Amino acid sequence: MMFALLPTRRAALLDADQEVRLAAAPRAAALRAVMAIEQKTFTRASDVLSLGERVTQVDVVNVLGRWQTVEDWDTVGALVEMDKLFDASGTPLEKLEPWSEMVDGRRLMSLSEEEKLLVSPARSPNRRAWCKRNGQAQRWWHNENVPLLRFTSAKLAASVGMTVTEMNARKVNPLALEVVFDALAQSQSGIVLKEKCNARRALYETRSGAFDSTAFAKDLARARKTVVLSYAVFPGVFQLVALVIFFRVDGYHLMLEYFERFSMAYRTPGM
């Protein structure tokens, strides 16, 4: 009788072991999903060959999860005071003085990066007035103001294996801000129509609220194509790109190695 029970007990043990494996499977799958998400990266549209610094999908979502429409970041921060200079249509209430490109008598090219930011035409009231009148969203204010907002989209966070709390604990990556606006503008331009910006932002979420990396990557690819076409207008750009690749792959030493092999192949004995 005892021996008859052994197969049953063994089966019970196997069932219990199987239950443990099944319970662990979702956790393992989730871990693999998060690892795959972290491995998906993006570069600037101007980085045509994708050789430069990259941002992760989590970095991109950390930008997108802080706003839904342009108005969310286009009415906060320093813009609260600046917009008091204009009426609702963007017409200045008083004459705006030209934005100086000099600091202490020094021209823009000789300034430090911090000083250049202070006198950047992109943050001038003049540029702001023009953009308001023409319904344009600016890269400058997107990059300045989005980090001021809280991350609020639980579904976006969950789609990259994070929580809202975890996303708010992360700093917004400055490069991710640039990459996101490249996709929104489908170029490296500093401005884009607000209606287009809002429409493209909406495409970066699926119906379930998850991040649509495919739609985002497509707009980034369009931006890169725009950059390539603009480069093609200027003679010598592709030669410059080829030169960059040459140095990246250590072309000099590869050429030396090639010529050495070539000479050895055709060298006659005794010479």
Structure description:
- By secondary structure, the chain is mostly helical.
- The protein is built from 14 helices and four strands.
- It has helices at 2-39, 57-64, 70-73, 79-82, 113-118, 125-133, 139-145, 154-159, 164-169, 174-185, 194-203, 213-232, 237-248, 251-266; strands spanning 41-42, 55-56, 136-138, 191-193.
- A two-stranded antiparallel sheet has the order 1-2.
- Helix 2 packs across helix 10 and helix 10 (174-185) packs across helix 12.
- It is globular.
- The model is unreliable at 1-6 (pLDDT under 50).
- Keywords: Membrane, Transmembrane, Transmembrane helix.
- The chain crosses the membrane at residues 228-249.
Task: Sum up the structure in keywords.
271 residues; mainly alpha; two-stranded antiparallel sheet; two-stranded antiparallel ribbon; 4% strand
Helix content: 55-70%
Q: What gap, in angstroms, lies between the N and C termini?
A: 93 Å
How are helices and strands ordered from N to C? HEEHHHHHEHHHHEHHHH
Rg calculated over all Cα atoms: 28 Å
Structural class: mainly alpha
DSSP, total strands: 4
Sheet-strand content, in percent, reads: under 5%
What's the story with the biggest beta sheet? 2 strands, antiparallel
In which order are the strands of the major sheet placed? 1-2
Keywords: Membrane, Transmembrane, Transmembrane helix
Transmembrane segments: 228-249
